[in-house]
């Protein structure tokens, strides 16, 4: 196995389990512990992990984006729950923004039964997923392709988004915090999401439960800019209280409240 392939599998493991142990990885990949330490050193330099005694833990507030295929596998059950809820929020004939998050791809897969939608997206994966839908208008933002993320970014993408007025936007983030609001790993990604929420009548934040109480590098917006939060399980009481005070609707499986 090539070193790059081994590190990719280690990255998937640390993202799924939040931590890894050198001795266990050495046995799993049939290499020396020193080889695994070098792998973790490289991953730490890239911002993916934080080394700890005997292993490493995931760097959840780092500014390094994980590859799309790694992010896709993270909490797929939770993302599907979110997509199921979102499907009920989208009506035939609406015009929507979908960002380049993996959650947005789950949403795209889930709404193909809708009629005459207009979808504007900066996601290559969304474009591919919706390429077989015949009666929709699928609009690419264009822009600069960011390696590994399957997203289109930059001024060209932002200018394209600004030409449209959508009914709803569905966006994800790297972290959401009561004080810092909604945050992303990079300025360029945050800027695109800002453009989308400014061009939509109603803003949906789609976040699985792991994103709460996390702060990433770049600000997208304060919580007050969000109309609806959609997540995979009921948030803690402090979040429920905050949403109520800000008049934010919160949707989660089995219990859907109008304004909480």
3D architecture notes:
It is a single chain. With 260 residues, the chain is of the alpha/beta class. 39% of the residues lie in helices and 24% in strands. The chain is built from ten helices and 16 strands. The strands form four sheets. The chain has an eight-stranded mixed beta sheet, with helices on both faces. Strands 1-3-2 form a three-stranded antiparallel beta sheet. Helix 8 runs parallel beside helix 9. The C terminus is likely disordered.
Order of helices and strands: HEHHEEHHEHEHEEEHEEEHEEEHEE
Helix- and strand-based class?
A: alpha/beta
Number of helical elements? 10
Distance between the termini: 52 Å
Mind telling me the C-alpha Rg? 19 Å
Indicate the proportion of strand residues.
Answer: 15-25%
The average pLDDT score comes to 90
Major sheet: 8 strands, mixed
Helix percentage range: 25-40%
Can you list the strand order of the major beta sheet? 6-5-4-9-12-14-15-16
Shape: globular
- Secondary structure tally: strands: 16
Q: Give unreliable regions as ranges.
A: 256-260
């Amino acid at each position: 196995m090539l070193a790059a392939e081994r590190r990719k599998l280690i990255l998937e493991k640390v993202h799924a389990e939040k931590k890894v142990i050198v001795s266990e990885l050495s046995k799993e990949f049939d290499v020396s512990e020193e080889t695994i330490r070098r792998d973790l050193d490289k991953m730490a330099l890239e911002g993916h992990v934080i080394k700890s005694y005997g292993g490493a833990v995931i760097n959840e507030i780092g500014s390094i984006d994980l590859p799309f295929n790694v992010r896709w596998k993270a909490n797929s059950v939770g993302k599907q729950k979110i997509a199921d809820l979102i499907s009920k929020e989208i009506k035939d004939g609406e015009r929507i923004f979908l960002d380049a998050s993996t959650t947005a791809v789950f949403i795209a897969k889930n709404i193909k039964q809708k009629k005459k939608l207009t979808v504007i997206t900066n996601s290559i994966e969304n474009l591919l997923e919706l390429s077989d839908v015949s009666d929709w208008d699928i609009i690419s933002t264009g822009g600069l392709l960011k390696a590994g993320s399957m997203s289109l970014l930059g001024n060209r993408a932002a200018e394209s988004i600004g030409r449209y007025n959508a009914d709803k936007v569905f966006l994800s983030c790297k972290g959401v915090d009561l004080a810092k609001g909604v945050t992303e790993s990079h300025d360029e990604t945050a800027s695109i999401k800002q453009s989308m929420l400014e061009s939509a009548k109603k803003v949906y934040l789609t976040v699985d439960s792991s994103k709460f109480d996390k702060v990433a590098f770049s600000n997208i917006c304060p919580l007050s800019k969000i109309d609806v939060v959609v997540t995979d399980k009921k948030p803690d009481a402090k979040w429920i209280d905050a949403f109520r005070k800000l008049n934010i609707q919160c949707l989660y499986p089995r219990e859907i409240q109008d304004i909480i």
